[in-house]
Amino acid sequence: MNENNTENELEFDLAHYLDLFLRRRWVILSVFISVVIVTALITFNTRPVFQAQALLVIEKERGNNVIYQSGPTVERGNDDYYQTQYKLLKSEAVLKIVHSRLNLDKVPEFAGVYGYRKLLGPVTIAPVPRSRLVYVNVDSYDPHLAADIANTVANVFIEQNLGNQLFISKDVLNALQSDKGEQSRVIYESLPAVVNNVLIQQLKQEAAHLQAQVAEASGRYTPKHPQVLAMTANLQTLRSQIKTETDKVIQSLKIDLSGQLMGNNIRLIDAAMPPLSPIKPRKMFNMLLALIGGLGLGLFAAVLVEFIDQTIRTQEDVENKVGLPFLGLVPYTDPVKTQTVYNHLLLSEHSLISESIRNLRTMVDFAEVSGKDKSLIVTSSVRGEGKTFITANLAAAIAQAGEKVLVVDGDLRRSNLHKIFRVSNSKGLSDFLAGGRNVDDLRPLIQPTDVNNLSILTCGPRPPNPAEMLNTPRLSAFLAWACAEYDRVIVDCPPMFPISDALLWGKHINNCVFVAVFGKTRVPLIKNATKRMLGSGLKILGTVVNMSKFGGLSYSYYGYHYDYNYNYHYGPDKPETPEKPETKESVSKSGRH
Predict the structure, then answer these.
(1) pLDDT at 203
(2) Distance CA 230, CA 37 (A)
(3) From the CB of residue 140, how many other CB atoms can be counted at a distance below 10 Å?
């Protein structure tokens, strides 16, 4: 049982949203087309951007020989090392050199005092996951320039990495390779590799000891003494050995350092080539995204418009938003001045609008079934909502059902009912209210119509004080006489705003049919009007949604329901030809006021 209820709720929700989207199809279509057009304009007018890629490999850094380091070595993690290299690869120092080397100040894209900083956006670093490879990507409007920048960034970074990695060894090698006589000898002998050499240390100790002996002997003997000459010769030999051993160490350093300078842990694998096609804009992708996004945005806009819409459109709106009974939907018809607004009720052919009026008659009968008073007024919030049209058609439909009906033009300010029924307005209700002596004076004012059982009391000459005339006892006497003479009395009243004449009629007639326009009459206005009527004691039989336009599932269902019921219950035995367009059964423009 619960599963069946859940399925019914799901089906109802789906039908509700399908109905919503069909009714709001123009909103959806407008948003969809707007998104597609805007996307197309942006996509096809955007300047193409090309991307060039240079591929580098960054090997794990090799440690330098401890002979050149003055302190202890520090072991660094791979992640820290590679993150550092990625930052250095896009550093301003590298970009400044690239900007200068390629003369990018002459390119409008990178011109300016700080033009090298404009490379920060186009140059991107993209490491390859789980590898030591990294791409240097460069975006530019010129494919050849993009390739040149990518290769230059890679080469400059490789050069700087080599210099930064071996800057101490490079300085030492430059010093070792320079030839400045005694100054070079002093530098050589001060190198740690020479100072810490054991053999050189022993030779220096022996030379120092021998030099002390030579100094002592020189104090006792002349310089030509054989002992002094022998000791001096031995000292020269030791110094020559120290120089020879120092030269060996220096030569070894030169070879070692030259080998290190030739190595580099960063290499260029694939040089960038000018791209053949742009990466932006992605025309096919953008248009596909526009189609999907435009549809989604259109559906969202339809839901949003429906959510903020404060007008009446459906039975659910009448019952949920306003809290009034629902009497029916009356479809919109194009005005045809050559016909009366109730002409569709007089034709043998049945149409959607005629069935909607008959359905309204049935709903009014149901609403009045518990009451003895068969008189009612028809009003709306403001003028232009079709209350006169509803009054004329409802009166004609009730008269066709066999009841004797009197329709009264109760709008003493803007009378229109006589135009619909095409009768004279020279005399009418205002004459009786102004100077009627008794109810017998009413009979000459009543006029027949072309609908059987339907009579009309027009407004008559427009009085200067309508509100005061509706407050006279003659109005009560008229209504008492009319209810005694006729089965139904239907009064076309003025709208609730901005005047209150309808409430004066409500003092004598309790029942009211309220008219709202499909998609135009706002809920707050209806609530204010109905609040005034209920406060004055009027009973609102229900609301009629006039000028409804088909476009959703519910309206299509209503149309099918009307047509099906008629054909099934009342149709002739032989098949009927398809109905003609409803323009032949439409109403005159004046009947909508």
Answers:
(1) 83
(2) 106
(3) 23
Domain stops at, among 266, 300, 335: 266
Q: How many CB atoms lie within 10 A of CB 293?
A: 15
Which comes out higher in pLDDT, residue 252 or 367?
A: 367
- How confident is the model over 509-535, as a mean pLDDT? 92
* Residue 109 falls inside a structural domain: no
Clarify whether residues 413 and 553 are in a common domain: yes
DSSP helix, strand, coil percent of the chain (3-state; round to 5): 55, 15, 30
- Hey, what are 332's tokens? 């919109």
- The boundaries of the domain holding residue 491 are 324-571
Q: Which two tokens stand for residue 471?
A: 């407050």
Q: What is the pLDDT of residues 120-149, one digit of tens each?
A: 999 999 999 989 999 999 999 999 999 999
Closest CA to 469 of 417, 441, 511, 504: 504
DSSP 286-330: HHHHHHHHHHHHHHHHHHHHHHH--B--SHHIIIIII---EEEEE
In the block, tokens 């070879």 appear at 255
Tens of pLDDT, residues 177-232: 665 566 666 777 777 777 778 888 888 888 888 888 888 888 787 878 888 788 88
Both tokens assigned to 455: 């009579």
Residue ranges in 436-507 assigned as alpha helix (H): 466-470, 473-485, 501-506
**How much is the mean pLDDT over the chain?**
82
The whole-angstrom separation of Cα 121 and Cα 138 is: 9
* 420 and 512 housed in the same domain: yes
Residue 465 in any domain: the answer is yes
The answer to whether 278 touches 16, Cβ cutoff 8 Å, is no
Burial, 342: exposed, middle or buried (Cβ in 10 Å; 0-12, 13-18, 19+)?
Answer: buried
Q: Is 9 part of a structural domain of the chain?
A: no
Q: How far is CA 131 from the centre of its chain?
A: 40
Residues 349 and 239 both lie in one domain: no
The answer on pLDDT for 453 being more than 70 is yes
**Co-location of 347 and 467 in the same domain:** yes
Q: How far apart are CA 481 and CA 484, in angstroms?
A: 5
